[in-house]
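Summarise this fold before class:
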Amino acid sequence: MKGYGERMRLRAVTILATIALVVAVVMLGSTRIVAQGAAPAAPAGAGLTIEGAWIQAPGDVQSTYSLEFGFTGDHARIANAAPVNRSVVIDPPDGRIPFQPWARGARDARQEVHEDYTRLTSKNLDGRAKCYLAGVPRIVTGAGLMSITRFPDRVTMQTEFAHQYRMIYTDGRPHLHKSLKLWNGDARGRWEGDALVVETTNLNGYAWLDLIGSFISSEATVVERVAPIDTNTIDWTATVTDSSVFTRPWTTRWRLVRDPERREMWEQACIEGNQFGLWPDIREREFGHKPK
């Protein structure tokens, strides 16, 4: 029985980590190419621009698992990658999300359940495992290849994962009414030179910030600054303000690099049939029977 239990534990860890890190594996493979060869050129005549196809830079991929702690142990081994114990939270300086006590307790409880597959339910399972949209700002870290296009009155961001896209209007139009809540919120942008500053409101509060259960509420405002620091690198920061969950605003930071393979954007439809590997067990736990 002990051997069976250990096999089941490893099976659960494998399934969960595969969903969380399938994007990371692709990114790690691509970023190794960047390190070994010449960086791909920016579009002809573009100068410093955020337009193009981007992936996360080496060392930042871990944040899809945990913004504060990276990923270690079984998860790093499954990704065939070295453990990364680094926070991408740059403010506060200690690298920790400033949760209110009740909110930290809720996040930690989610993490504990996540690490014990026998307690997983549909309510405490990461939304990405259910093929939901990643939300903001997680769309930067957990969506694979991202394509950014600039138009006179807007900027579009498309990702492979879950057919996601963002429409960021830069023509000065007001936000939607606060009663309308969306997975990726309602984004309004302005240009500061080559940098795009985006304010996102109207989030529905359902999307997690990472796989272990960090979260925001539907009252959150996220301000992102997307700035090219050279022809092949973007500096992306996101400042989260949500007085119902956190004790103060806080900021996280990532770098994106141009896709070295210059791949075409495909529709990556999450999991085949949207059937997460542990759904039958979860259904049996919640409803008393497995689906036929």
Remarks:
- The longest helix spans residues 2-36.
- Residues 2-287 form one domain.
- The first strand starts at residue 52 and ends at 56.
